[in-house]
């Protein structure tokens, strides 16, 4: 399982009040979807097309991604679906890229370079699309203030949301 092979600590990001409120609101909205699905299934007398108990796990995974706890999300993914990161290299790359971005966001430059070398370089060498995305990500290291760089979009919470949406495809 790929998700358990990383030895770095979880990448937890400090959230300002607005971000924390957004995540709490998003979690509550998703909880409402599960409850609505359960009520609908009971009232309509049908069986849900999926195991609704797994919905809580999916919500936790997406919430962890949104909060920047990427390695925790990867652990939860591999617990829920042990082969998913092996079978879906695009999802795995994007989660690894988020780990790298969290290291860069926290100013942990040396760790970011090591992480990229150990976890992403080989894939970047063999896949031009991954290489392009990896180059954009690593370019952030060339700027004293990455949030003011031309690649700052990668550090914006909306980038996490894009990855969270990729997770929706696979779950």
TrEMBL record:
This is CTLH domain-containing protein. It holds the Pfam family CTLH. Residues 55-111 form the CTLH domain. PANTHER family: RAN BINDING PROTEIN 9-RELATED (PTHR12864). It comes from Hyalella azteca (Amphipod).
